[in-house]
Amino acid sequence: MAWRSVIGSIVAVLMTIMDIQITNAAIGPIQAALHAPLADASWISSAYLIAEIVTLPLTGLLSRRLGYRRYAQVFSVMFMAASVLCAQSTSFEMLVGCRLLQGVAGGALMPLAYSLIMTRLPDGEHGRAMSLFGAMVTLAPMLGPVMGGFLTAHFGWASIFYLNLPIGLVGLALMMSGLRDEPAAGRERTQVDWPGLVLIVIGLGSLQYVLEEGNRYGWFASRDIAVLTGVALVALAAFVVRERASAQPLVALGLLANRQLRIACAANVTTGAAVFGTYFLVPYFLIELQRYTPAQISLVILYGGAVQLSILGFIPRILKRVHVHVLVVVGALLSCISAWMWSLAAADFSYASVVVAQLLRGLGFTLMLTPLGVLATTATVKHDAPSASILFNISRSLGGAIGVALLTALVGIRHAAYLDGSGGAHGAADDRAGFVLAFGQTFAVMAGFLAAMALAFAALHVRQAARERQAARGA
């Protein structure tokens, strides 16, 4: 019964993460159908992401108030209803509003799997569950554009939203069969920290907007971006002060005093940046430099997904034999090699090398994400699962937003620097050479961050092993 609820919640997570990217392949048809301005098309994704990250801090309070069964019902139905409304949108403004509603439901469903793994499964099953969860988290951003492109080409753009109905119903049915309704006494009626709620909504909403739209407006050359950055920093700092002094905090930030959870969340920022950054950079690279069609791009991306699915069954057994720190090191190194191969492909493209890079990426990301999930789930007691889940999921979402924003900016900066340095008129050859340089250097930067993560976890493992040996000698 417990496993049904966990699998159902993971299906829901697959649906919500997939929906972040699924609209990218349908931007053109949506613009044509709804007469959307090209400059505003990014709001189809931005609206979802802003609503999602603003909702995440509220999920602990909502799950305690509603109980997991009712919580799953409310937000699964809300997500599916919002999806139907998106498909039926008759204007661009209506679509953006419905995407906001989708984002609220998606943000609520995102941490549910983590919480159910911690509270419903015995500790010995966490590794198996997190391997499945980790695979879905890395597969979903890949499946989104693939499914979006296929459905849009064959059934029209509205079909990308109707896809959520069968997926959502399967997830909801599994959760309902696996979750027992908590007794009324088990639903906490805690006082809502309204000042904290307002601060976190303003802070995270402003920060997500800056990360999503900053590159488009020239970052701090834009007065609005500069002001919103200041608002985000002040609001988030005030939220931290408020929560640390509150008897009933909205998010138990004190959990970050737990070293293991703190390490898992910090590493999750880097992993989120690598995962979502790759799913942005690879299609961008293949379009700009190789002129690939959506179908060709989908095939390249699917190589990594095939590896992730093929090793899924082996991860729990590997976790029992290999320390999680070692797995993160191996995963980060494989991902580093993959990013470095992509940096070389910018100047000397070879389809075979790209396939190998994608295979290494799929293996590396899986070996990173699953151990980090195990670190997070074993760091706290079950009572703290909602807050720990919020912190872990926010770290990944922010990492993804930061990664995409920084990598986008870096490609633009290095491309512009090359053109400025070449002087004179710029032809197609100069433009291509600039992109070759920009993509090569950007992938190399990603490889550097992943190498640093591998070194950090290697040092962490060595220090922990030394402490354990010292403790054994003292005993």
Describe this structure in words.
This protein is 80% helix and 0% strand. It starts with a helix and ends with a helix. The longest helix has 47 residues, at 428-474. It folds into 3 domains: 1-180, Growth Hormone, Chain: A; 193-249; 257-474, Up-down Bundle (Growth Hormone, Chain: A), CATH 1.20.1250.20. It is built from 19 helices and no strands. It has helices at residues 2-21, 27-34, 43-55, 59-66, 68-87, 92-109, 112-120, 126-155, 159-162, 164-178, 194-213, 223-245, 259-290, 294-311, 315-321, 324-345, 351-377, 385-422, 428-474. It is mostly helical.
CATH fold group of the largest domain: Growth Hormone, Chain: A
For the termini, the CA-CA separation is: 42 Å
- Would you state the CATH class of the largest domain? Mainly Alpha
Largest sheet: none
CATH homologous group name of the largest domain: MFS general substrate transporter like domains
Q: What portion of the residues fall into strands of 2 or more residues? A: under 5%
Helix tally? 19
The overall pLDDT average reads 84
- Helix and strand element order: HHHHHHHHHHHHHHHHHHH
Low-confidence stretches: none
The tally of beta strands, per DSSP, is 0
Specify the helix fraction band: over 70%
Round the Cα radius of gyration to an integer and report it.
Answer: 22 Å
What would you say the CATH architecture of the largest domain is?
Answer: Up-down Bundle
